[in-house]
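Session log. Operator J.P. requested a structure for one protein chain; no other inputs attached. Running the standard single-chain path with token output.
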Amino acid sequence: MNLEDKFHLLSNCEDELICFVCEDWCKDPVRLGKCGHYFCSICLPNYDYSCPKCKELFFKEDVSTAHWYGEVRQSVEYFKTILEPLLENLEKLKNTDKDENTQADLPFRIKFADPKSFKKNAKGESNLHLACKRKNIQQVKRLIEDNVDINSKDYACWTPLHEAIQAESIDIVIQLLNSGALINSVGEFYVTPLHKAVLMENSAIISILLENGASKDEIDFYGRKPEDCTKRQDLLEALNEGKPKENIEKPHVFLMNKVMVYCHSIDEEYRKKIVSSKNIRICKDFNIKINN
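Structure written below.
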């Protein structure tokens, strides 16, 4: 039995020791002889000879105060205290060994998101798009912590970063960039976030984007670089003076959790990298019924 199984078993034991009525550790515990469930002595009289948990009928003589509740609870709490940090460190080691080492030599970081986080409204906007438009920095932080796709595009190809720039929310722009938003992702008419910042005439956001590696050479649908979108001297100076800072956060790309990959022909080196990720499975035989 591995650590996870042992911890799960202890958690089940803990659940059995919690009073089903008050949902807390049993106070002055009593045990029902027929089903073996524990309750607080003051909680049980509220039920007329029917176990609140399993509905098993019992008689007054089935209620016992002679049991091992105290000793069992003490043992469960003791071993959970020992196993919990071990399990947490084991999970960190697993993630480090598999995902972080797999991605160490990549120019971006792969993150796996819950499929529900890809949900969009009628305009193709995610909850993160809407939070950026409303300048709700707290909701933006919560959504990023929930590992939503920060680079998802609405049906007009705008990303949350474009929306944050449109809303002129510097805090949200910084939050998205620090969380690995794709800084040169193009929106409608191939407008990059830097194009958008210039069009919004926001020199502060222009400087922030350039510090985080925004390209000044991308062209939009009309063949314009960001510098071609303005004649204001202060904005042109901001574009010319901006330089990337050191240790820029790697951009993050998001995949749905649990990915199936069909590999017909692939170098062994790359196959090992794919296999080492806990979220990806490789299948050797393609079956449209299984893999679709």
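Operator note: Residues 95 and 278 are 8 Å apart (CA to CA).
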